[in-house]
């Protein structure tokens, strides 16, 4: 009996990095064979560092100006939205704070991409932040984060 060998090429996994900073998520992705396609960041120094390490990544600029229909869909979106208002070293105003409230721009873009791609992309979303995200907003901000990801109301015990 002759066994036929079939080799298939696996689909390349792609990543988009919001609030990219100096490209930490793209660095981790590259180490496991994931290709970063685009990044969004507004800090010029951080962009300069990221471009040096990831010259093939398209830098899209300000997240508030991005529309999903204009960017390449990706398998994974990562983001570490600004933490100043979540941080215990900050003011703990959380999602109501001027900087940390931009979290909702990432959620908007993710939902837009899912709409534009009929729910195909992104497959995964990874949000990273500080421990203060669990206690800010009278301990309700993390609930709001989970509700934003799931579009579901999460009950709270009395």
Uncertain segments are none
Radius of gyration (Å): 18 Å
Tell me the strand percentage band: 5-15%
End-to-end Cα distance: 68 Å
Along the chain, the helix and strand elements come as EHEHEEHEH
Largest sheet, spatial ordering of strands: 3-2-1-4-5
- Most strands sheet: 5 strands, parallel
Gross morphology is: globular
Q: How many strands appear in the DSSP assignment?
A: 5
Helicity, in percent? 25-40%
> From the helix content, strand content and strand pairing, which structural class follows?
alpha/beta
Number of helices: 4
Q: Taking all residues together, what is the mean pLDDT?
A: 92
Task: Walk me through this protein's architecture.
The structure is a single chain. The chain is an alpha/beta fold and 158 residues long. The protein has 4 helices and 5 strands. The protein has helices spanning 24-31, 44-53, 103-116, 141-150, and strands at residues 14-18, 35-40, 58-59, 76-79, 124-127. It has a 5-stranded parallel β-sheet with strand order 3-2-1-4-5, with helices on one face. Helix 1 links the parallel strand 1 (14-18) and strand 2 (35-40). The longest helix has 14 residues, at 103-116.
Summarize the structure.
The chain is an alpha/beta fold.
Topology of helices and strands:
Blueprint (H helix, E strand, L loop, with lengths): L13 E5 L5 H8 L3 E6 L3 H10 L4 E2 L16 E4 L23 H14 L7 E4 L13 H10 L8
Parallel strand pairs: 1-2, 1-4, 2-3, 4-5
Summarize this structure as a short list of keywords or feature phrases.
158 residues, alpha/beta, 5-stranded parallel beta sheet
